[in-house]
Task: structure prediction
Amino acid sequence: MSQLLAGKNALILGVANKWSIAYAIAHAYVREGARVLLTYQSERQKQTVEELGAELGVARVLPCDVTQEAEVSALVEQIRTGCGTLDAMVHSIAFANKEDLSRPFVETPREGFLLAHDVSAYSLVALSRAVAPLMTAGGSIMTLSYLASVRVMPNYNVMGVAKASLEACVRYLASDLGPQNIRVNAISAGPVKTASARAVKDFSKMLEGAAAHGPLRRATDPAEVADTAVFLASTLGRGVTGNVVYVDAGFQIMGV
Ligand code: NAP
Result:
């Protein structure tokens, strides 16, 4: 079978380690023939992401803390000089203070609320604005969301609210960028054991509950999230924009 992303340049933000959803996506993109660029947030993660990138066979590993406008601009400049154009961007980034994920939502301080929204939602807007001029032949932008955007999930708190904002950003960005044939979507993944997920109190219970009660009676495999990310970046996804695509073994349809 021919490779679905052959000849495409793809930027993937959010690989922290082998358990990251972004790692599974990078693996699938390389398999499908994309030229992949990864980013790391700080010097602390540089060596790990460079080693993972070398293992995967990605083209480049570049720095970018998404809260720093100057770093977003520098990233785009490096892509412009290195690749010229971009076909896909995967935003797989979120952050909230751990204490805001365990105390009642009503007690969320202003600072924690703004931080979660800055890193987890606004960064998609800033990055989309920055990369859109590189998507000269159209493109596909996607982000990772979670069911807590539309349902109350224990301990998700401010991150659930930030995901609601993120999904609304997807719709507005899709509307703005559609005339340039740039599609913007979210993949709402079921629970996956990652470093970020570990910050959510009682995460294992959520994962076990979803696996026990969802239609497919099993947990979400990051590889199936990655395959949907391939579909969205490929020509096969050409008619899909402004959507939240659930890859959660069906859990979101259940009432109880
Ligand atoms: P992860 O491996 O911990 O990935 C989160 C990434 O965000 C890390 O690479 C982290 O970098 C990066 N990040 C945080 N703040 C940043 C900043 N200021 N600038 C640049 N990068 C920053 O966890 P994950 O579960 O794969 O999360 C990826 C996405 O999937 C998130 O949006 C998450 O909400 C979403 N999601 C996860 C699940 C799940 O159950 N795991 C389910 C649905 C959706 P550092 O490690 O360097 O801080």
